Every structure is written in C-alpha cells, then in structure tokens.
Amino acid sequence: MNQVVDQLWELQNVLSQLAEKERLMSVKPESFAEIDDEFQKGELLSATMSGKIDQLSVEKRAIERELQDNQELLKKYQGQLMQVKNQQQYAAAWKEIDVARKLVKEREDSLLASMGEIEEVKAKIEEDKAPHEALKSRHAESYQAWQASLGELRGEVEKLRAQAAVMEERIAPGPLAQFKRILVQRQGLAMARVVNQSCGVCRVRIRPQADQQIKRGETVICESCRRILYLERLAS
Fold it and tell me: What are residue 114's phi and psi, to 5 degrees?
C-alpha cells in the first residue's frame, strides 16, 4: 500500500469539498444579484459622467488658451492699424483684424458651448446623486444580509481549511510539493481515480506496466493528463 498516495487522495477530496464550498460562497443570491447589477451599472454611469467632466474641462482649458491667444493677436493687429502709412497697408491691416475677430468669435462660441455642456453633465450628475445614494444604501443592506446568511457555510469552509492544513503536515514535503504543482496546473484536480484500468479523468487506458506499478503501491502519473493516479483498494 502506498500510504502517501492514500494521503494525497484524502487531501484531494478535502480540497475539492473546500473548492465547492468556496464556490457556493461566491454565488450571489437572486435577491442580491439584481440590486448588485443595478448598483454596478449606476457606478459605471457615475464614473463615465465624472470622466466626461474631466474630458470637457481639459477641452475647455484648451479653448480658453486659444481664445486668449486670438485676443492678444487681435490687439496686436489693432495696434498696428495706427501705424499704417498708406491705403494698401490699411486694407491689409483691416483684413488681419477681421480674420482675428472671426477667430475670437469662434473661440468664444466654442467656450460657451463647452461651458454649457459641462453644466448639463453636472446637472445630470446632481440629478442622479440622490437616487444613487439610496441605491447604494439598499445595496449595502442586501450585501450584509447575504453575508449573514453565509455564516454556516463560512464555518464549514474554515473547518475544511483547518483539516487540509493538518493533513498537509502529515505528508512528506516532496510528494506534497508535486501534488500542489499539479493541483495548480490542472485547475484544482491533482488526482485521478483508476476506473477499469483507465484514468478516471481523461479516460486514457493505463499501460499494463503502469497498472502493475499502481497495484504495487508505487506513485504513477497519468501519461495523458499528468495527474497522480489513485487505485481504490477494497477493505480487507
């Protein structure tokens, strides 16, 4: 009899039970799932609106800089108008002033539009604030109620964790390290029961030599799925 393989099999069973209990703990009840979905959508909308404010604020500052540059350029052209010496220079100066005025007007309109859009978004945020806070409160209450209902299940999880820890202490470091490595590589299932001389997980037939090794109590790894093979022995 291979005592180590038997110990690993028992540990695998406990860890499988633990994984299932932990999965159940993570499954949201329908009553909470509905309000959680609504709450998460509200959080996403809130984050999106805040991001929109930030984006619009950046655009607004860029427009303000452009407006300031255009206003300074307009003042420059207006100042140059007093220095012209002939009709041709006068006409050219007025042409530059007209272009600058149009640019100033365009930036002023853009600035007003930007400020208006920011105010609209802020108004929407303020409008949604009270309902979202109420939803947040209901979400917290529902979550606490769910967590309270997990008391018994949480106790079972802690018991299984403690049981697994004790079992690990009784297993030799080498086999335990190999088991844990396979456990990670094979999504929480490091052991495979031998069923009709085949791997109970991947269904691949076990070679006669490997079958004899298992019966002799040797540790054998499945050639296909790379799990540790376990042959259940009949009670004598």
Answer: -65, -45
